[in-house]
Design brief:
Elements (H helix, E strand, L loop, with lengths): L1 H11 L12 H14 L8 H21 L6 H13 L9 H9 L1
Helix pairs in contact: 1-3, 2-3, 3-4
Length: about 100
């Protein structure tokens, strides 16, 4: 039943401004920024980018869970997502331009 609710929601939601149109998106961005300043989150990427990644990742997990008839533990998958994005990591950025420049050489 819950899986059907998720599938229906996901198939009818507007993709134009996801996740920025969601009610709590700005609140999540503010909370991430405060947690970065206090040292609780050491991933210093832009708070809006972290929030987007959390929303898209969460939606992907829920979609996969619903499509798979609830075949895995949502709590464990969400824990992995949040840990992967919020735990301390070395600063790095991926640039497709750098790769293209190297390929030309």
């Amino acid at each position: 039943m819950v899986g059907q609710v998720y599938r229906t929601f996901l198939s009818t939601c507007d993709e134009t401004d996801f996740p920025k149109y969601l009610i709590l998106f700005n609140t999540v961005v503010i909370l991430i920024e405060k947690a970065q300043k206090s040292g609780e989150i050491q991933n210093m990427s832009q708070p809006e980018l972290i929030a987007e990644a959390l929303y898209y990742g969460s939606r992907g997990i829920v979609y996969s869970w619903a499509a798979g008839q609830g075949g895995f533990c949502l709590q464990e998958k969400f824990k992995n997502l949040f840990n992967g994005l919020l735990l301390p990591v070395k600063a790095h950025a991926i640039s497709f331009e750098e790769k293209n420049d190297q390929e030309k050489k």
